[in-house]
Design brief:
This protein has 251 residues and is of the alpha+beta class. The chain has a single domain (7-246), classed as Creatinase/methionine aminopeptidase superfamily (Creatine Amidinohydrolase), CATH 3.90.230.10. Helix content is 28%, strand content 27%. The chain contains four helices and 15 strands. The chain has helices spanning 7-30, 38-51, 118-136, 144-157, and strands spanning 55-56, 69-72, 75-77, 91-100, 103-112, 161-162, 168-170, 177-182, 198-202, 205-207, 213-215, 222-224, 230-232, 235-240, 243-246. The strands form four sheets. Strands 8-7-9-14-15 form a five-stranded antiparallel β-sheet. Helix 1 (7-30) packs antiparallel against helix 2 and helix 3 runs antiparallel to helix 4.
Amino acid sequence: MTVLKTRPEIEKMRASGKVVARALRAMSEAIVPGKTSPADLDALAARIVSEAGGTPSFLNYRGFPANTCISVNQVVVHGIPTNVPLEEGDIVSLDMGVLLDGWHADGAWTYPVGSIGKEAQRLLNVTEESLYQGIAKARVGNRIGDIASAVQKYVEKNGYSVVRDLVGHGIGRKLHEEPGSVPNFGSPGKGELLRDGMTICIEPMVNQGTYKVRTLPDKWTLVTTDGKLSAHFEHTIAITRDGVEILTLEA
């Protein structure tokens, strides 16, 4: 059953979201091509969350061994941070959650490492815009399918594919709660009704080539089956009678 949040509860989630946004920005600004590793960024995020009085939502969640998911190039999601430096021309998806005062927020962003090619930059631009296309449909009275369809249509219109095996989700006291599935593909008018007080994560994962993914032997890391690039953007949002509110913003 989807738990509807009160205004004070939404504000607590916003406080968690601000820490997420601050950590993502700090990690992106710390990247030095050829020098900074995902493990360095993971440690930085952990320090920022700790200083804010929070806890990384992902650490030990279902056994995940790091504070953040850091996914490079063809890695779609759930990349385990390594000590291998990021290189000029890479793209890197930073995904993290924060538990603060009993409430979670979750966000992700894909960043260029130094100067990247035009095709890689276009993938980032389209994926980011698809997130906002979905958010625009997150209105009281609409349905989950309206969000899903908006993301899918924008992505496919631009020649890319949306991952089917992974979806967004409800969030609040738990990192994953009802509605358990907020997909990036589907039909308008379908799925759960959007109501005042719902809090969800919309997170398009967009591939240059096929939407198909596979899991590596570590049982966490998911990669594109064709080796092409993937990008990931995510916000935690609150749906209210006065409109949608993005909770994972720093300001």
